[in-house]
Amino acid sequence: MKMVNKYLKSKTSLFLMELIITILLFAACGAVCVRLFVTSYVMSKDTVELNESVSIAQGFAEVMRGTDGDIDSVIAHYPNAVRGGEGFFEVFYNDDFEVCGYEEASYVGDVTMTPNGAIQNMEIRIVRLSDYKDIYTLNVTKYMNRTKG
Question: Cα torsion for 13, 15, 20, 21, to the nearest 10°?
Answer without folding.
Answer: 120
